[in-house]
Amino acid sequence: MYYQFFGLRTEPFSMTPDPAFLFLTAAHREALAGLTYSILSRKGFVVLTGDAGTGKTTLLTRIFQSIPSTRVRFSVVLNPTLTPAEFLELALLDFGITTVPASKAQRLILLQQFLMEASEKKQTAVLVVDEAHKLPPDVLEEIRLLSNFEQADGKLLQIVLAGQTELGDVLNRQDLRQLKQRIAVRLAIHPLSPSDVEHYIQHRWQKAGATKPHPFQAEAVVRVAQCSRGIPRLVNVLCDNALMLAYGEGSATIGLSQIDEVARDLDLVETPGRTRPGQGAIAGAPLRVDRSPVGATANGLATAIADRTAPGPAPIPILERYQRNPAKPSRLTRLAGRLGLTR
């Protein structure tokens, strides 16, 4: 709804994993290259880990699109909370095998035939499991056994396990040591640094068709980095809501106050009297010392900006939704007014 106002062709901060908008940090480039190499070289087991919202699914989507279908056959399991029988059935169905027998033995024979036929056609069969940190131990054991399909020159089935950082703890379990020993390549992606957040915002802004720099002021970018802690998904939701707020106000730029308002509405900041672990501080509240690399750098940038600008930002008012600041309409009410949806 704000595209035309800001001179854009499409939504710049969509929540869907669109590979056209993929921003590649050094870790993302390494993960992309490692995934491609491991799949095409038939290395067997590959593990990709990263915090929630750091771009694992987007990386996988880029892999699906970048490798020609003539070379690779993918089966993707997006919901791993299944029984071993259900998991095997879903894997077969996504490989395009529509007639799945009830017997497990017959299913395994059918899968073996499919893998042999793919190998004869010089195609690589790849089983991708997203949200793999949620896999129960019996399904992980089933996946390990599927890796036994092999020939002398390599594995017939390539398996990619993508999950949050706790997947590493799952694989360190003593009863899963045989699975861990088969992992040929381990890859990891990390949150964006504060400088990466600035480049990430500009990258997506340009991909959306903009011909001018993004409208976020320097202080606003620093606050986005603080509140999001470098998680791209949170950067997206903060920026998208701030753009809607700016459009509703008729403002062509986005400053600290807009970011603070949407971060507060999204419950991404600390408020006086309620400390939430792992969150950044807000204007008007005591600044919590953040020892993480992302938080420390962001806090340093915030201090540098504060030193160059005087006076500092005013304390953030209490949320409108609690009716303690009824004089100012909420941002959604202002946006509705901008669109002519209210009288």
Can you tell me about this structure?
This protein has 343 residues and is an alpha/beta fold. The chain is 45% helix and 10% strand. It contains 14 helices and 7 strands. It has helices at residues 3-6, 26-40, 56-66, 84-94, 104-120, 137-146, 167-171, 177-181, 194-207, 218-228, 232-249, 256-265, 293-308, 331-338; strands at 45-49, 72-77, 124-129, 150-151, 154-155, 157-163, 183-188. A 5-stranded parallel beta sheet has the order 2-3-6-1-7, with helices on both faces. A two-stranded antiparallel sheet has the order 4-5.
Shape: elongated
Order of strands in the sheet with most strands? 2-3-6-1-7
SSE class: alpha/beta
Number of helices: 14
**Helical coverage, percent range:** 40-55%
Alpha-carbon Rg, integer: 24 Å
Show unreliable segments: 275-297, 300-326
Biggest beta sheet attributes:
5 strands, parallel
* Secondary-structure element series: HHEHEHHEHEEEHHEHHHHHH
The average pLDDT is 82
How many strand segments? 7
Approximately what portion of the residues adopt beta-strand conformation? 5-15%
Task: Tell me the span between the first and last alpha carbons.
Answer: 19 Å
